[in-house]
Write a structure and sequence with these properties.
Layout (H helix, E strand, L loop, with lengths): L1 H6 L1 H15 L6 H23 L1
């Protein structure tokens, strides 16, 4: 799981962005709440990497 996240972190970030936009229209289920928290942590941790590129 974590290895896949870092291996495909750029794609995951894009998915997180789309997911965040979807929250405004769709009620988040319990499983997705964990995914949302995960996205927040991942996005914050890789943001410096994206800015550096």
């Amino acid at each position: 799981w974590l290895i896949w996240i870092w291996w495909d972190h750029f794609h995951l970030t894009h998915s997180c962005m789309e997911f965040s936009h979807g929250i405004n229209r769709i009620r988040v289920r319990n499983q997705n709440e964990h995914f949302q928290i995960l996205c927040s942590a991942i996005s914050e941790s890789i943001e410096p990497t994206l800015s550096r590129t």
